[in-house]
Design goal:
The protein has about 170 residues and is mainly β. The chain has a single domain, classed as Immunoglobulin-like, CATH 2.60.40. It contains one helix and eleven strands. Strands 2, 3, 4, 5, 6, 8, 9 and 10 form an eight-stranded antiparallel beta sheet that branches. The protein has a three-stranded antiparallel beta sheet with strand order 1-11-7, with no helix packed on it. The longest helix is centred in the first third of the chain and has 9 residues. The N terminus is likely disordered.
């Protein structure tokens, strides 16, 4: 089962999203487990959207990083903190209790401002371990962060979508 969800970066309020089974995979060895998983499609809710806070960028540019494990924000280069809260993205996945899931984030995402300027988020990462599983209640909550790279002398409110893929392996 595969579910692709686009998350707004710096966007409006989060809303619950759900999807039906789009790609159900049955292994010949484990058809019963695959059938149970198909009857319990993955559901994804965006609890909190990734927000890098407010910064001013000087002529040489820089980056803002949000650590998914600690939520700490780090500024590098010619970047100054203007306040606001930097927040990791938080996602809840629901499905088959105890099932292993695979969560994939893209290597980078391009953002745009209202004036047409662009910035890039790279290094997207979660706080998940190597083999995440849904809990006994069928839920898994994870956080994600990344690095916003901004060129010098560009301003604006940058927005974009971060596709998150969640699937049963």
């Amino acid at each position: 089962m595969r579910l692709v969800l686009a998350l707004l970066l710096f966007g409006a309020l989060p809303a619950p999203l759900a999807a039906q089974c789009q790609l159900c995979r049955q292994d010949g060895n484990d058809a019963a487990i695959a059938a149970r998983k198909a009857s319990m499609p993955l559901r994804v809710e965006v609890d909190t959207q990734l927000d890098m806070g407010r910064v001013a960028v000087g002529a040489s540019g820089g980056e803002v990083e949000i650590d998914p494990l600690t939520g700490a924000r780090r500024l590098r280069g010619d970047v100054r903190d203007l306040g606001g809260f930097a927040v990791t993205g938080v996602v809840t996945v629901s499905g088959e209790p105890g099932a292993e899931v695979r969560v994939t984030l893209p290597p980078s995402v391009d953002l745009e401002s209202g004036s047409g300027a662009s910035a890039r988020v790279t290094g997207l990462a979660t706080d998940l371990g190597a083999a995440p599983r849904l809990g006994p209640d069928g839920r898994l909550v994870f956080r994600f962060g990344g690095r916003l790279q901004v060129a010098g002398a560009t301003d604006g409110d940058y927005r974009g979508r971060i596709p998150v893929t969640v699937e049963y392996p």
